[in-house]
Write a structure and sequence with these properties.
The chain is 30% helix and 29% strand. It is an alpha+beta fold.
């Protein structure tokens, strides 16, 4: 299953930071993502690896609320969510 990747996103995406959220609850994801996004230069991409779609929707909600650009997600073995730092 794939959730649309924004057409303006470079393909393939090359994240400069990756969060392994496979064992993380969706409620903890926003806090971890906020801390780790501080390490990502403005305009660069962070990836979040997760097991379930609930974490994908949590990541999308966090990105939008935090003012970052949700680029989309795709499911390989795990979900990969891509967020671009805007601020």
């Amino acid at each position: 299953m794939e959730v649309a990747i924004a057409s303006r996103a470079p393909m393939p995406l090359q994240p400069v930071e990756v969060i392994d959220a496979r064992e993380m609850e969706a409620c903890d994801l926003a806090s971890e993502a906020e801390q780790r996004m501080c390490q990502v230069p403005k305009g660069e991409v962070m990836a979040i690896l997760c097991r379930h779609y609930g974490a994908v929707t949590a990541a999308r909600s966090w990105a939008q609320a935090a003012g970052h650009e949700y680029l989309g997600a795709r499911q390989e073995v795990l979900w990969r969510v891509f967020v671009k730092r805007n601020r």
